[in-house]
Amino acid sequence: MNVMKKFGKIEKVKIPYEELRNGRHRMLGFAFVTFDSAAAATKALEEGEVNVEFTTLEIERALKRAAPQRERGGGASEFEQLKRRT
Predict the structure, then answer these.
(1) What does each C-alpha distance from 46 to 2, 15, 16, 42, 50 come to in angstroms?
(2) I need a surface site. Which of 4, 38, 42, 64 has the fewest CB within 10 A?
(3) pTM across the whole model
């Protein structure tokens, strides 16, 4: 993530991956970069994209995912409901 340093100091980088059946990992094709200041993050967002070797990376703001709704009252899970329909 050296290419992102030009926007400011980086606090954290997270590169999500999935674990394959053979024990290997496959990157999902995106990363989360946390800057130490809002100004650095804004500078990166204004740039919009950066070039790394032969690839252009898009820079976007990460949005928080909504928490999954939990069933109340011990009802059947969505999986169990789908299983019953078939």
Answers:
(1) 18, 22, 24, 6, 11
(2) 64
(3) 0.65
**Number of domains, the chain:** 1
Here the CATH number for the domain that contains residue 33 is 3.30.70.330
Nearby residues of 45 by Cβ (< 8 Å), 6 or more positions away: 59, 60, 61
Separation between Cα atoms, residue 68 and residue 38, nearest integer Å: 29
38 domain-assigned:
yes
Q: Rounded to whole angstroms, how far apart are CA atoms 35 and 4?
A: 9
pLDDT digits (tens, 9 = 90+) for 32-54: 999 999 999 999 999 999 988 88
11 phi/psi in degrees, rounded to 5: -90, -40
Q: What domain range includes position 17?
A: 2-65
